[in-house]
Amino acid sequence: MSNFENLRKRAKLYKRWHQNRYHPVAAEIRRWLPRYSGLNDRQILDCAFKLADAQELVAAKEGFESWTALKQGLTLMNTPQQSKASTPTFIDAQPQLFVRDIGSSCDFYIGKLGFELAFTYGEPAFYAQVFRGAARLNLRSVDMPFLHPDFRLHEEDALSATITLDDAKALFLEYTRAEVPLHQGLRIEPWGAQTFIVRDLDGNLIAFAS
């Protein structure tokens, strides 16, 4: 359990991150505060988020129902275990894909694959994040080839990202109707998963599996 002063500083940090529209904090808010669970990142960052909200988030992560309960709990807990650091909780993983043009790639992922735009960064934009459901992909523009020209000749099925979902077949049919370029059609893998693979504008291979 962290000491109270560190928890106060953490709450202020979350509030500052929200104020500065630091997108990763939206995932934390959505995970730990149920009233935000139905909102996407942009909606969360557009909402009012007070210090009391940030304190509530910190309390939830520490296992308490409120900031007041957290303070009372820290007062009552005087065993050696209270000085131990809390175990980190993994929130999610966000693959980064290298692309030649942010605008064209965003158009592909939004127009073809049904993602939404979380944000773009830079003027002109050189970084972006797209999401669909809980899946997030970070797009980073590069000016030079990011793979050796012969790479695909030897590693033709090398994946850039894998996205899991509840019904790969339904998404496969959706993408077939949208004429999405496929690297591999729908199939059952030896381990039982149902998969297919999409190729984006830059040759990144995205596997979808259920």
Strand order of the largest sheet: 1-4-3-2
> What is the count of DSSP helices, taking H or I runs of 4+ residues?
8
What CATH architecture of the largest domain do you see? Roll
DSSP summary, beta strand count: 8
Uncertain segments are none
Range of strand content? 15-25%
Organism: Rhizobium sophorae
Keywords: Antibiotic resistance
Protein name: VOC family protein
Domain Glyoxalase/fosfomycin resistance/dioxygenase: 96-208
Which helices and strands, and how do they pair?
Layout: H1 4-19, H2 24-32, H3 41-46, H4 51-61, H5 67-76, E1 96-99, H6 102-111, E2 116-121, E3 127-132, E4 135-141, H7 151-154, E5 161-164, H8 168-177, E6 182-188, E7 194-199, E8 205-209
Parallel strand pairs: 1-4, 5-8
Antiparallel strand pairs: 2-3, 3-4, 6-7, 7-8
Helix pairs in contact: 1-4
Pfam family, one: Glyoxalase
Keywords: Antibiotic resistance
Protein name: VOC family protein
Question: What's a quick, concise take on this entry?
Answer:
The chain is α/β, with parallel strands linked by helices.
Structural account:
This protein is α/β, with parallel strands linked by helices and 210 residues long. The chain has 2 domains: 4-77, no CATH class; 96-209, Roll (2,3-Dihydroxybiphenyl 1,2-Dioxygenase, domain 1), CATH 3.10.180. The chain contains 8 helices and 8 strands, in the order H-H-H-H-H-E-H-E-E-E-H-E-H-E-E-E. It has helices at 4-19, 24-32, 41-46, 51-61, 67-76, 102-111, 151-154, 168-177, and strands at residues 96-99, 116-121, 127-132, 135-141, 161-164, 182-188, 194-199, 205-209. The strands form 2 sheets. A 4-stranded mixed β-sheet has the order 1-4-3-2, covered by helices on one side. Strands 5-8-7-6 form a 4-stranded mixed β-sheet.
